[in-house]
Amino acid sequence: MKRPPLAHPFDDDKLKEECGIFGVIGVGDAANFVALGLHALQHRGQEAGGIVAHDPNSGFNSARRFGYVRDNFTKADVMDTLPGPLAIGHVRYSTAGSKGATAIRDVQPFFGEFAMGGAAIAHNGNLTNAAALRRELIERGSIFQSSSDSECIIHLMARSIQKTIPERMKDALRRVEGAFSVVAMTRTKLIGVRDALGVRPLVLGRLGDSAWALSSETCGLDIIGAEFVREIEPGEMVVIEDGKITSSRPFGTHAGRFCIFEQVYFSRPDSIIGGRSVYETRRQIGVELAREAPVEADLVCPVPDSGTPAAIGYSQESGIPYAMGIIRNQYMGRTFIEPTESIRNMGVRLKLNVNRALIKGKRVILVDDSVVRGTTSRKIKDMILEAGAAEVHFRIASPPTAWPCFYGVDTPERSKLLAATMSEDEMRDWIGVDSLKFITLDGLYRAAGEAQGRDPKAPKFCDACFSGDYPIAPSDKLEEGFEMKAAE
After folding, report:
1. What is the pLDDT of residue 409?
2. Cα-based torsion angle of the residue sequence 64, 69, 70, 75 in order, rounded to the nearest 10 degrees
3. Which of 37, 168, 432, 457 is packed most tightly, with the most Cβ within 10 A?
């Protein structure tokens, strides 16, 4: 089995996507639909993918592979081994367990055989008490096959005394802390569940009269021609069997705290979140940025591709022309296979190139989605200046990322986040630009549809990476000595 390709240096300075999950019930070749859905969710994880399907005649079958969906789950020799009307799948970027050296045993979905039959589970998110649970389960005799925190759910289900798999899943998920969206399956049921605060996304779609789909994002429904029905609510579990849906609230009813970085970066711009187009939210972020941080310039240029909608909004609000000052190599993909040291030193140039004829002599506003370590921002600035730009101004479509995420996003430790160690002015000087401005947290909330901005007593979103306000205590990290932000 081939290892995942080496990461490109451009990716080292971006927050890494979480994972994507997808499930279908009620169609003749469910695994093929799942493969299409995972292809639409590929932006959420490019490291590996897996599909589990069930057929009444052949039982459960699975396939797990490193790399892209298109390279693994479009081939007859793989898909023919996954027959049946029910299937779930997962695309992965490791946020817990081993990183950079993934074993095939870490690739989801995970499968377990219980007294009442088999079940498979795929999980998006992070369990913040996984280390403590793992210690407890191992002491009680559980034998783990992977380094993933998601496997804890399977072991907790195995130890439950409930009589059905959905009830065992409820038992298990009541024991875990953190953020999770889950799709699971038995021989006859498709199950979807979100954590009590709904930090991670999950949506429900309909295919015809009796077929249903669950997806991390609505773009996964679009690709299979499914009708978007609704979002799974925070703390809700749905069980789909024989074309019918049963809903329950195993964790009670709570005000949601959906991850606001889904709006900024993770979700595809053609997805719908909370009844609102992600593209429109990102465009509105640019509008708010132009109002909060105006500057005299000749061009507004996005840092491709995630900065594009915000750059369009900034241009529309400011009246400064929008231009493609940086061109992305569309064939680069997310990785660069086996580069030599001299090639790796070219860094960002392998992925982005400056439109020199356009940039020369111009005062340029660059709009990007975030600044993490800041190293990529410096390289892009150098490229723009080398192309002859008169001035370079950065406008960032998120507040300063000053705190790590423990809910399913792979972020550096706090000491490596530029905004954790520098003020905005210090960051400007370190990057070496004429000006640097981030959207405020209130501005981000307004762009996401909250007209009054952020209510500090009852924020609508999880914004811990910006505010340090963690809605779920990161138990394992606190044990390791992580210091949370002091109460204000």
Report:
1. 83
2. 30
3. 37
Q: List, in sequence order, every beta strand (DSSP E) within 351-442.
A: 352-354, 363-368, 391-396, 435-438
Report, as ranges of residue numbers, the positions in the chain whose pLDDT lies below 70: 1-17, 94-102, 330-349, 487-488
Number of folded domains that form the chain: 2
Do 221 and 320 lie in one domain? The reply is: no
Inter-residue contact 27 to 358 (CB < 8 Å): no
CA-to-CA separations, 394 to 194, 293, 306, 398, 438, in angstroms, rounded = 37, 10, 14, 12, 8
Give the containing element (helix H, strand E) for 285.
helix 278-292
How far is the C-alpha of 16 from the C-alpha of 18, rounded, in Å? 6
For residue 122, what pLDDT is reported?
Answer: 97
pLDDT given at position 280: 97
* pLDDT (0 to 100) of residue 14: 59
Any catalytic annotation for residue 19?
A: yes
Q: What is the pLDDT at residue 336?
A: 40
Same domain, 178 and 236: yes
Q: What was the pLDDT predicted at 331?
A: 63
Amino acid 442 reads: D
Domain boundary among 257, 285, 312: 257
What pLDDT score does 16 carry? 54
Catalytic residue among 19, 219, 462, 465: 19
436 with 419: CB under 8 angstroms?
Answer: no
The answer to whether the beta carbons of residues 195 and 249 sit under 8 Å apart is no
The whole domain housing 342 covers: 275-449
Strands 352-354 and 326-328: antiparallel
